[in-house]
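Why should sequence recovery work at all? Because a backbone constrains its sequence more than one might expect. Tight turns favour small or flexible residues, buried strands favour hydrophobic ones, and helices have their own preferences. The token representation captures these environments compactly. In the example below, the structure is given first.
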């Protein structure tokens, strides 16, 4: 079959989180804390004071435009000469330009909205010639336009906030691996080059948060199904030799609404979160919709038709927890998730339960430096040996580990990040090493240079991408 194996069935992302949030994110993080502070302090205002405040609030209403433009380049220096008829990804493989405009609207002291989009254009197809790439790859990457953040949020009553629209909700404690962070799909099309911070894709949700002292209870209804973006036929990260079978996505109906709950306690020196999610998997599982069939045309020899395959999305239930604890310069992270409803090709009509767990340590005792080590394990209950075969290619126990070192130089204007990820205990299945340096040339202009090296044993799960070593550069202007 042409199913993707290995990397895209993992519960953890094959990438590292960016060392700092995008500059434009700071424009809408302050949800008018003065308003809430006044409520918590129990201030009683006179009529004159209320009128004055209403006048000040009307003056604060505004629309602010912002965003960023970036140009990046990727050079594949280790890609081998392809076989006749296959896509040639040697040399320059991407020269993508991207524009992310945004508008922030403040209606009053306690209501605001944000609307942003992403526009991308990849000129490498025009430069190298469209005929040198598969039509699926050109269609997937040449031009992209999508609505990104698009929500209205506010505080209707004291302690309660609501946020409606396309948004991203991050669960868990890990900076590099996914265990409880299951709500938003990811963009897996360039693993290792794209950071997990930029891999998350927004979904249309309604989110209610109620805060009482140190406790926050969140209820989420997800109205939009959106699968993760996987490499398509012709991509240098695609595992198969043929296009994937058709995927049947759940309709965006009331019946298919996804739900999630979280309870978070923020106490002195430690945080604890409990999670529940009833969602669709954002990566499909393969089924054989029809087996091989012999057809006897009139007056002709019998013809053997190959089997038909389809991709479907299973409905999952996740019960999870995450905790962080601070001990001096040390930060301890732990996560665990019990996931029900997983399906596999080689075990049809049987749902498997998974247990994913993570432990991590972060040390910040060195000046301007943080060192993070994380280790995750996944266990499949009622495991069957057939799951070792393609396209599933999973073991009863699988691990991932990460070493991440971030250091700032030159008065916090130069940020150097080094990351190593092992896809098993020894890296035989696959590994990557990435280093990048980002320099804030001005408050609005940043330049990033880096490289990624991939590796795997010849029979490793990720051997198909071990020659994708590359260098990358990016220049971003924020406005």
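From this structural description, the recovered sequence reads:
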């Amino acid at each position: 079959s042409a199913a993707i194996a290995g990397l895209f069935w993992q519960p953890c992302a094959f990438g590292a989180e960016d060392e700092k949030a995008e500059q434009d994110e700071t424009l809408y993080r302050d949800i008018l804390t003065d308003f809430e502070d006044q409520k918590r302090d129990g201030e009683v205002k006179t009529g004159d004071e209320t009128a004055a405040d209403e006048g000040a609030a009307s003056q604060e209403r505004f629309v602010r435009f912002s965003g960023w433009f970036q140009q990046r380049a990727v050079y594949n220096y280790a890609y081998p000469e392809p076989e006749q008829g296959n896509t040639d990804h040697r040399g320059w493989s991407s020269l993508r330009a991207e524009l992310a405009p945004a508008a922030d609207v403040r209606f009053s002291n306690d209501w605001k909205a944000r609307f942003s989009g992403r526009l991308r254009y990849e000129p490498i197809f025009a430069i190298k010639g469209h005929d040198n790439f598969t039509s699926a790859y050109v269609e997937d990457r040449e031009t992209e336009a999508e609505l990104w953040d698009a929500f209205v949020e506010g505080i209707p009553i004291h302690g309660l906030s609501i946020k409606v629209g396309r948004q991203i909700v991050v669960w868990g404690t890990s900076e590099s691996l996914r265990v409880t962070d299951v709500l938003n799909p990811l963009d897996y099309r360039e693993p290792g080059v794209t950071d997990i911070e930029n891999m998350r894709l927004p979904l249309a949700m309604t989110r209610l948060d109620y805060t009482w002292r140190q406790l926050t209870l969140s209820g989420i209804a997800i109205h939009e199904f959106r699968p993760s973006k996987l490499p398509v036929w012709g991509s240098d990260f695609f595992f198969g030799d043929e296009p994937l079978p058709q995927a049947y996505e759940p309709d965006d109906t009331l019946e298919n609404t996804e739900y999630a709950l979280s309870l978070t306690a923020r106490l002195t020196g430690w945080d604890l979160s409990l999670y529940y999610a009833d969602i669709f998997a954002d990566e499909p599982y393969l089924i054989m919709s029809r087996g091989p069939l012999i057809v006897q045309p009139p007056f002709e020899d019998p013809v053997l038709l190959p089997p038909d395959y389809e991709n479907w999305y299973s409905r999952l239930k996740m019960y999870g927890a995450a905790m962080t604890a601070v001990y001096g310069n040390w930060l301890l992270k732990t996560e665990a998730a019990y996931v029900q409803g997983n399906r596999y090709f080689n075990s049809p009509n049987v749902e498997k339960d998974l247990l994913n767990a993570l432990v991590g340590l972060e040390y910040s005792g060195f000046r301007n430096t943080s060192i993070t080590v994380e280790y995750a394990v996944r266990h499949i209950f009622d495991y069957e040996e057939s799951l070792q075969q393609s396209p599933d290619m999973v073991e009863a126990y699988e691990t991932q580990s990460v070493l991440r070192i971030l250091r700032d130089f030159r008065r916090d204007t130069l940020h150097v990040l080094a990351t190593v990820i092992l896809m098993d205990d020894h890296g035989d299945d696959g590994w990557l090493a990435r280093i990048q340096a980002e320099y804030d040339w001005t408050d609005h202009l940043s330049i990033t240079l880096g490289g990624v090296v991939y590796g795997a044993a010849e029979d490793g799960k990720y051997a198909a991408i071990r020659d994708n070593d590359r260098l990358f550069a990016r220049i971003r202007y924020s406005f």
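A few observations help interpret the result. The mean pLDDT is 88.
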